[in-house]
TrEMBL record:
The keyword Lipoprotein does not apply. It comes from the Eukaryota. GO terms for biological process: lipid catabolic process. InterPro entries: GDSL, GDSL_esterase/lipase, SGNH_hydro_sf, SGNH_plant_lipase-like. Belongs to the 'GDSL' lipolytic enzyme family. This is GDSL esterase/lipase At1g29670. Keywords: Hydrolase, Lipid degradation, Lipid metabolism, Secreted, Signal. It holds the Pfam family Lipase_GDSL. Residues 1-24 form the signal peptide. GO terms for molecular function: hydrolase activity, acting on ester bonds.
Amino acid sequence: MASGIIVWFLMMTTLKLNPLLVKGEQQVPCLFIIGDSTYDNGNNNNLLTAAKANYPPYGIDFPDGPTGRFTNGRNIADFIAELLGFDKYIEPFATVKGVEMFRGVNYASGAAGILDESGIHLGDRISLNRQLRNHKVTISHMSTLLGNNKTLTKEYLSKCIYIVGMGNNDYINNYLLPQFYPSSHLYKPEKYATILVQQYEKQLKTLYRYGARKVAVFGLGGIGCIPAELDLYGTKDSGCVDSINKAVQYFDDKLIPMINDLNSNLPNTKFIYVNSTSIGIGDPSSIGITNLLDPCCEMSSTIANGQCKYGGGACSDRASHYFWDGFHPTETPNKVTATRAYSTLLPTDAYPFDISHLALL
């Protein structure tokens, strides 16, 4: 078995993958996803947690129904996989087996954060540190299948793309919930952002040590505009909670300097930054979205307040709604985010370049 996989591996690593040759051609051998509920596709399904989405009406527009994706259809990770030419979506760590992991693994977990404690009031979740440990387990399995050849394994991983999207829950399910977490009492917003980014950079360096060489880091965007925060804090003239967006902007503003530092100090690697705020700015009606405020699904009133009610109803005009539940976008904005991360519409969408260019390296 191992020798057969090594032959397959060598074919993949010597193949010149050019996305311009054939439409839909797979541009990289594998895709790994590290993140939160924006990217989760089933890792929380069997955890003891309120942060789950493996029940209706989640997945109402997804071919396989409710799979654990926190939206009505495809999430950002799904669309990026499509854009990179994968013929199947990347499997969650919870269920991936054998040679399938050579296509990549999705480690993302709803309620997970950069900080281990973020989201703990909801129950179990797979923090960024735990996701990194899970990736180490994957690498060990891959190495075994490659005849315990660590050099081949690292060479293979160096050709993969890594999507990393973390930080939302360090605000939504930590800093912005003073009844559960002390962080907002201990730190001013800018200091808290500094602490987060310092920890984030250490974790991304760990990912590099594990073999990652092509990494796209997604920013957070307008957390102060999501329905769950509007319900808690009300709105100002902007239609959003400006103080929250300002706090989150401190975090996002520190990501490009972090990216520059990583690229300067880690040889033979390229980190890029995807500017979710830039992508989120524009005329929503141009993509058919006319409702920016109301969640599409019926809301839960349990501890998972802001998520869809189990078996609850959903609006019929889902393509015109920005938000699916109190926290997460519908499939339409997910597609826009992934598309502009892959191929920028504006120069501010990604830095120093987009995912399509990252794939060519």
